[in-house]
Amino acid sequence: MTYEQYAISGVLAVALVGFIWGRWRYDIVAFVCLIAAVFLGVVPSVNAFSGFGHPATITVVAILILSRALSNSGAVEHLSKILAPAAGTPATHIGAMSLVATPLSAIMNNIGALSLLMPVAIQSAIKAARSPAAVLMPLSFASILGGLITLIGTPPNIIVANYRGTVSDSAFGMFAFTPVGGVIAIVGVAFIALIGWRLIPKARLKFSEEKELFKIDDYVAEITIGEDSPLVGHSIHDLHDAATEDDVKIFGLVREGTRGYMRERYLPLRAGDRLVVEAPPAALTSYVKKNELELTGTASDGTDDLEGENTVLVEAVIPPRSALSGRTPRLAGLTGRAGLHLLGISRQGRPIRDRLYQVQFRPGDILLLHGDEEHVHRSIGDLGCLPLAPRKLGSDPGRKASIVIAAFVAAIALSIADIAPLPISFSAAAAVVVLTNIVPVREVYDAIDWPVVVLLGAMMPIGGALETTGVTDLITNGIVALSGSLGPVAIMTIILVITMTLSDIMNNAATAVVAAPIAYGTALQLGVNPDAFLMAVAVGASCAFLTPIGHQNNTLIMGPGGYQFGDYWRVGLPLEIIIVAVAVPMILIVWPL
Amino acid sequence: MFDFTPVGAAVAVAGVLFITLIGWRLIPRRLLADAPTRNLFKIDDYVAEGLVQETSVACGKAIGEIDAISDQHDAVLIGLLRGGLRIFVSARHQLVQPGDLVIVEGGAQEIADFMRALGLELTTADEDIQSMLRGSDYVLSEAVVAPRSSMIGQTLLSLRLTGRYGINLLAISRRGERLRERIGNERLRIGDILLFQGDSERLSQVVPALGCLPLGEKRVGTGSKRAGFLAFAIFAAALVVASIGVVPFELALAGGALAIVLSNIVPAREMYDSVDWAIVVLLGAMIPVGLAIETTGTGALIASAILGATDGGSPILALTVLMIVTMIMTDIMSNAATALVAGPIAFSLGQALGVNPDAFLMAVAIGASSAFLTPIGHQNNALIMGPGGYRFGDYWRMGLPLKVLVVIVSVPLLAIVWPM
To answer: Which residue has the higher pLDDT, B278 or B176?
Structure first.
């Protein structure tokens, strides 16, 4: 091996370890590796940032903006409402949800499709007295499977298609993935709806009314302020910090029979006022004793008590890579917002009650928020959380939806008719949805998943360097030599399985960038059709069903479904086996070796 | 890295000297003559109290409703006084009782209409109000809307500051004029000055988070000294590495940015918020356009037009014309876009004249950065418009002489430092 080969192999090894370790976010790992590769002299400095303008990167950005437009249009909720009556049996319920989720994620990003449908799925499940856990994992898997169907369905497909464009006459087209991906998606969804959901642990499938809501009754109490209480004369606002220290949350005031929440923060308290508080029993007792208060009793009507004229309780989930993760409620500004109270956090199905304000948020946590209806919903949006109840639809979803769909169709038509290449036509469509204000200008850059963009921008030159230094050849030689007498079909299957396994533990786009050149080289060495091998990489890189960390969608449903880390492989492993069993013959039929 | 320094520094020194010695005198008298304590929001003149009586329409209404009614009458509800206690508009569900004093701000006619609509008895403003407005925990704060604020283009009604952040926005001032009409529906613009009212601690958090720059004297420092020093050291190191030419410029800066993130001075979760994506996309989109100007021969065409206009005169004349053209362009479009478009023209010009194009490229760099004629030419000019009380036409008075000076200083220097 030459110096260059050692250097780029080292960079790649560091990147893989960094991705799997997960200590730093993958875009930072990738960018460190890119800079290192440039300083080591294996990526020429003129090419260092070429990945950021790469057609694949631009296509991903355009699709993210179009996905936001689709989500803003409100068309999806409308569509899923029509299918709501199908919730009779789990199989039809999952089938109906998948019928929307799978085609939707074929044209938009997977997590966008899931976020739109998750609230609908949860509500319809509770209405059908079914645990949301029975529906959410199937929904997540169905949306991942949908990504396999078209070129724009997932970043791995875009990367593989573009890679083919650089090494042979033309890139894969919009629907080149459809024959293989479509069949896999149909078989996969059928398996999930009929058998797969039964493999979810029984404990998660059991429906109980209370489990679906935080049990807050036990914790809400009314305390009356005595004549001698040191609290007299202070406002709730003044008391807030000290009470939070004591693990007591004051969120209401009852004076002369009238009840108010939040807005009375600045009124000085008087003897005889009653405070509505929420606290664990021990904290409550000590707080009452310390401040000479009188426990008037736990509020008998629990949650109803909190849902006043304008106030609501809303659950919201923290999506992967939210700005909230790693922050405490105080840092996130949740303590300082008028009209919004954090009442509880639920992590993996278990409520967190004590020392709530010191908990660090994690993706997948569910927050229970209380406050004025409109403010709560706005704040959830500001914080980048997803509410678990469906949104109210904006006015006139029809007009917006038709513009978005027209933009999509026009972009696809332009690229199929070879008038404009894919990145150009989809960028133009993205510009249309911005100009028509479906994605307002101030929202445009929020719609883009920048870590993925930087990951792609940084990994492209590294992938290129793997080829130019001949490391790809070394690896393919190794694969061919190791596989010895195995036929090309067996080798393709191995590549598919390895890619699948890699994408379960690291980002799927990074997997595709590294695996595509290796698959291509191996096919050339074996003297068979490289397209089949590239398809195997595309399928493998998009399939991450074994863990909650392999795909953002699986992370997102973890909290709302109350799943554990070990729940995923029970459904995911059989599904991955079925995908391999379907993918290999389908690839051989559609892309003969 | 420092190729720009000889000419750039000379222009900067000359320019600053001009501004401090002569330039400021060119600012219109009306702005200079104003008292130093010029108060944009003269609250005392427009504040009135209304007493709620048993028979008042206001009786039994929630403060939120009263606030909505005050909006209809173009008045601003500031709060209530009940038995000496202050109740703020943020207590929206609090009901108004007989004996309450409703404090409202606005024009005389608006206040009268408001009082009539609610059946309030007008009383005079007194010390109570001042104390309410300037109480210890509820303070007034002025802030200017900065160019990248998320508030730009939004209305007060859509922002719902009271509900979301517990602060009130009492008034807007634009270009030195207090907005009087329906401020609730007014779309905010860069440079607007906003008068906030709220808890001082909350204001200090919320106002910067909204993308506003506080105008008060109080500055809350963020970040530790260590982080500041480290950031400075990393920046300096990146610049040094870049300037000695060991590694390309962009790579050194990218490495510096990476070091800032890895040392957690800018946490990974915040790193993409600190990028001005609008500029990134502008550059990304304009670079190929600039290239097309060159490849299609348009650059050469414009270059020959400039040559024709200068009648085959000396390269110095062409250089001067190029710089002036660039300066005019940059006043109406962003300076980055100007540089991208004018760059290829400068290069073609140099080639057409058969001289070293470096001087022409430098002329573009200087010209593109000299946007002094209008508030729209540069974000900085837009930002000071509100706080300074300037009008659109105030900029050229000082800007035009300054531009002339820049041309006079830089053209001979360019010819010396970058011989043609």
So the answer is: B278
